[in-house]
Write a structure and sequence with these properties.
Layout: H1 2-8, E1 23-28, H2 33-48, H3 52-73, E2 81-89, E3 96-102, H4 129-136, E4 139-144, E5 150-157
Antiparallel strand pairs: 1-2, 2-3, 3-5, 4-5
Helix pairs in contact: 2-3, 3-4
Length: 171
Amino acid sequence: VGHLHAALGVAGARCPPRRPRPLLAQLRRCHSPPRAGQRCGDHLGRLAGLDDDALHWVGVAVRESVINAIKHGNRDDERKHVYVEFTPLSNSGPAGIAIRVRDEGPGFDPTTIPDPLAPENVLKSSGRGIFIIRTFMDEMVLRRAPEGGMEVVMVKRVAAGDHADSQSPQP
């Protein structure tokens, strides 16, 4: 745990870095990646000072993006991986967490995603993950990753009133 806290820049941890470093998780299809990604997000979000409501939405966003990466990006190919990177935000504005989820799939044009609120899509049993992420995260970008595949980059920041209760170090 000390190394994890040091990587996140938590005061009192061994070898604290000058600025927070990202934590990268490589998830395989057979290890319940949505749950593993959500647990990491919960822990790191709490260290960043997010409240319970924000932590809930971070968990939903991580779970949805990892499921999309497995199902749509990697097309359920167990040989392919999903990469989840968590980066604490503390030096450039309000504290929070940035999450990058990347797959190894062929990619797609994000402008072709159907609107889940369109009448023809309202009763469909899928197709709302990206909509949910956009709605409840503070920032969200969906793009082709430089390494190949697609990536979603999401940011959730500590609400203005909650910053004083944050466990993250002050800049």
